[in-house]
């Protein structure tokens, strides 16, 4: 990932956990823009794809584009996004565990993240840009690790519910930008990028299953997903990302 998440990028370089936590909390502080003329609806946009698909720089690009358009933006990530969830993230990425434990940990962190960060930001009318969310759990724990999709659906309903928003309300992203890239290209990019964590060190066959998991989620909810062909030069990927957001009327089409 890019430097947007110093805690992760420098996890082998910064041994002081307090320093790392301060860094991540600073990066989660909303970026305020000039006040807009009227209150706007909050937007929840998530970014997904196999490891190495190239999400990071485009999340930063969208952040900048929304701020330039007068929005207040909260950039966050999963696993993580709150002090509690960041602690769970460290365990999740580095300790061996079975797929049920993985699922319970990410959903526990997600509950805290929704309550502390995402829902309050959406109530304020902010734009929330979240690097991974529940589609990753279906893709990695469900499709990749073979964990029961029915159990994941139950957890999704329980964790993402909010009775104050309606008895049947289950929070879902307004848009999921899915960076789709052949596994061999992602592996090649990652080989030059960073020290792999527990997931990034999985074989390509694992990522083929994860990719199939994303494809299944996208097929089930086509209106929510924008598939981006990430196997092209970075400026072209950016144009596709920006166009997907502009098509929904949330940003102007770039000249
Ligand atoms: N379009 C692209 N073409 C070539 N390399 C890219 C492209 N996009 C990203 N990369 C490189 O691939 C690696 C993984 O990108 P990154 O954004 O960290 O992926 P992700 O956040 O999806 O895991 C990085 O080294 C990055 O510089
Ligand atoms: C949110 C989430 C992430 N993951 C995995 C995907 C990534 O391999 C890892 C997050 O690590 P991270 O290094 O942030 O990956 P990336 O830069 O590609 O976003 O956790 C799951 O397995 N399940 C989940 O629910």
TrEMBL record:
One of its GO terms (molecular function) is dTMP kinase activity. InterPro entries: P-loop_NTPase, Thymidylate_kin-like_dom, Thymidylate_kinase. SUPFAM superfamilies: P-loop containing nucleoside triphosphate hydrolases (SSF52540). It is an enzyme of class 2 (transferase). ATP binds at residues 49-56. The keyword Disulfide bond does not apply. Residues 47-237 form the Thymidylate kinase-like domain. It comes from Comamonas odontotermitis. Keywords: ATP-binding, Kinase, Nucleotide biosynthesis, Nucleotide-binding, Transferase. This is Thymidylate kinase. It catalyses: dTMP + ATP = dTDP + ADP. It holds the Pfam family Thymidylate_kin. Its EC number is 2.7.4.9. The keyword Methyltransferase does not apply. Phosphorylation of dTMP to form dTDP in both de novo and salvage pathways of dTTP synthesis. Belongs to the thymidylate kinase family.
């Amino acid at each position: 990932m890019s430097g947007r998440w110093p805690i992760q990028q420098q996890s082998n370089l910064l041994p002081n956990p307090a320093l790392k936590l301060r860094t991540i909390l600073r990066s989660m502080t909303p970026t305020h823009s000039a006040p807009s003329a009227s209150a706007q609806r909050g937007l929840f946009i998530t970014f997904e794809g196999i490891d190495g698909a190239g999400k990071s720089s485009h999340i930063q690009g969208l952040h900048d584009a929304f701020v330039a358009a007068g929005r207040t933006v909260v950039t966050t990530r999963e696993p993580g996004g709150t002090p509690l969830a960041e602690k769970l993230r460290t365990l999740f990425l580095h300790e061996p565990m079975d797929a049920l434990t993985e699922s319970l940990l990410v959903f526990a962190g997600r509950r805290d993240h929704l309550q502390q960060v995402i829902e309050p930001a959406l109530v304020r009318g902010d734009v929330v840009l979240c690097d991974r969310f529940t589609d990753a759990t279906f893709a990695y724990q469900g499709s990749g690790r073979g964990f029961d999709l029915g159990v994941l659906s139950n957890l999704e309903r329980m964790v993402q519910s909010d009775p104050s928003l309606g008895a049947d309300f289950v929070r879902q992203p307004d848009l999921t930008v899915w960076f789709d890239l052949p596994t061999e290209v992602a592996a090649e990019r990652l080989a030059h990028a960073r020290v792999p964590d527990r997931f990034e060190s999985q074989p390509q066959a694992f990522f083929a299953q994860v990719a199939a998991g994303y494809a299944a989620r996208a097929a089930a909810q086509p209106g929510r997903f924008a598939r981006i062909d990430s196997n092209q030069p970075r400026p072209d990927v950016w144009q596709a990302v920006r166009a997907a957001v502009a098509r929904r009327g949330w940003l102007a089409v770039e000249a």
